[in-house]
Amino acid sequence: MISAVIVSVLLVLPWRWIAPPTSAFMLAEIWQTDNAIDYRWVPLAQISPQLAIAIVASEDQKFPEHYGFDMDSILDALSSKGKRTRGASTISQQVAKNLYLWGGRSYLRKGVEAYLTLLIESLWSKRRILEVYLNVAEFAPGVYGAEAAAQHLFSKSANRLTLYESSLLAAVLPNPKRMYAASPSDYVRGRAQDIRQEVRQLGGPGYLPFLRLNPM
Question: Residue 130 and residue 19: Cα distance in Å, rounded?
């Protein structure tokens, strides 16, 4: 038991300082499709704060406050009869899943995810958790991270993303293999508009106290 805890800490702790070279989801993409992936790590200071707040507004509005789990949203999700509930899976949980785990909804996977989420919340800062998420999230088929997405979809660097572009990227996160930020459907455009409104209601990037605002 103690050895398992030590191993798990060693799997999580280094990424507090080191950029992960890949993730479980990237490896699965390569294995399942044999396609090349586009993954370009950049520090949070080189990612537009508009994308950071758009992701938080869309995926996990209580991110600065919780310790890995949004219990109110979990209860809402359990009572929603299978409907997707924003924030039922926090950014911290998604980092744990993307970095280390596999797809699916088994109790085993959810249990391991919960344990890894607790480790990540304990060993990393909130700033680091968001930084890793923005770098490993898939924004288009085989396109991972803010820099790759910005270059691939908008022909610009991640630090130049506008709120409009950021909201489109956030809007496709539920299913980036079927929804496209560069040529958005009516649903994606509508969802992006809702995200921009939520960003304004939160007060913009200043809602994230740990976020160093970057010049636009």
Answer: 13
